[in-house]
Design brief:
By secondary structure, the protein is mostly helical. It has a single domain, classed as AhpD-like (Up-down Bundle). Helix 5 crosses helix 6, helix 6 runs antiparallel to helix 7 and helix 6 crosses helix 8. It is globular, with a radius of gyration of 16 Å. Pfam families: CMD (PF02627). Belongs to the AhpD family. It catalyses: N(6)-[(R)-dihydrolipoyl]-L-lysyl-[lipoyl-carrier protein] + a hydroperoxide = N(6)-[(R)-lipoyl]-L-lysyl-[lipoyl-carrier protein] + an alcohol + H2O. One of its GO terms (molecular function) is peroxiredoxin activity.
């Protein structure tokens, strides 16, 4: 299946999601690499098998092998970082912030693609996972790299729509039983 199949599988009550998929993916101003890397990273982070199954082939077709791997790496490392840094931030004992994390994150230093693209994918995953510390860090890195606010917002718009589609379709699968 494909993006069209995914849209067709949405129930009528989720018509806004269908239109939003058209907008955030079909009418995106992002480059193909930024768009499809964001789609792939957030499809992984959304944890919806149907969304990942439907969007992955188009992402693979639109990304170089290096970008495909880097988008998956962004989803993987941010799955860890978002939990770790969000927890450290939420604890009332701020001394945890002065401790060494002890976590390997080498891919963030050399992702194999343009650093701004990787930062954009990491920001989108962080939006989906709700880590304010990571969101601020990646947004600031993107702004320092000259990425405009509309591009940053496009990334978290994609994350929000991909997540909502996954929630809706996964719920429909359970309710149809």
């Amino acid at each position: 299946m494909s993006l069209d199949s995914l849209k067709a599988s949405l129930p009528d009550y989720a018509g806004d999601l269908r239109r939003n998929l058209d907008t955030v993916i079909g009418d995106s101003a992002l480059s193909a690499q930024r768009l499809w890397g964001t789609v792939l990273a957030t499809a992984i982070a959304a944890r919806s098998p149907v969304v990942l199954r439907e969007l992955e082939p188009e992402a693979r077709a639109n990304l170089s092998p290096a970008a495909y791997t880097a988008a998956k790496a962004a989803a993987a490392v941010m799955a860890m970082n978002n939990v770790f840094f969000r927890t450290r931030h939420l604890l009332s004992d701020h001394e945890y912030g002065s401790l060494r994390s002890g976590l390997r994150m080498n891919v963030t230093r050399d992702p194999g693609v343009d650093r701004a693209d990787f930062e954009l994918w990491a920001l989108a995953v962080s939006a989906l996972n709700g880590c304010g510390v990571c969101l601020d860090s990646h947004e600031q890195a993107l702004r320092r790299a000259g990425v405009d606010r509309m591009t940053v917002q496009d990334a978290f718009r994609i994350a929000s729509v991909v997540h909502a589609v996954g929630v809706t379709l996964d719920a429909e699968a359970v309710l149809a039983r």
